[in-house]
Amino acid sequence: HGSLSRTEISDALTGGKAGLVNLQSDVRCDKVRLPRKGDFTLKGLKQVKRYAWLVLLQNAFATFCAGMVIAASFYISLAEGIIIAFSFIWQEALHRCGDYITLIKNGVNPLQSMFFIFFSSVMVLPGAILGMYISFAHQEQWIFALGCGYFMYNSFGIVLPELDEAEARSVYFEGNPMKPFVLQNSGLAVGFIICAVFAYVEFEIDWKW
Prior knowledge:
Layout: H1 6-13, H2 17-27, H3 50-76, H4 78-105, H5 110-122, H6 124-136, H7 140-174, H8 178-204
């Protein structure tokens, strides 16, 4: 499993032996590298940890939902579609880099990792096809309801716990609680500003196309 429980993090921060061992072993992994000829596509899949498969399943579903939302956005207006597509591309590019490292840490070799990431990314196409079909039936509001619900879960159920864990690691290894506090809140502030700018551009500027 690639992440630690709250008890392990708490034990590590308070000097607990179990948390210390798990925290040190969790950050100690092989050097991340690019694929090479020795990486066979189907070799070693039995040793892949269950967490890696869950990551891939979650990524495939998220990409599928993103495809539906993007298609519905382009159906409403070209400007809105471009803004939404740009947002997803920027987010997914960073997300896939983290997934690559996570999969390698959980038993997937680099070639398999790139193949699985590509496969999960391709799920945007069937999502877009379904999104266009629903939009042509003038039911695009259900797409935005589904997308909004899922991505709110993704933010509050996945991202915030990861930020909490990253802060605990930074405090344990560096002993400086202000650094993760400033970096994380600065990142959130930048995200809110970008969303606000996109909202202003979309609703206040009279797009001719």
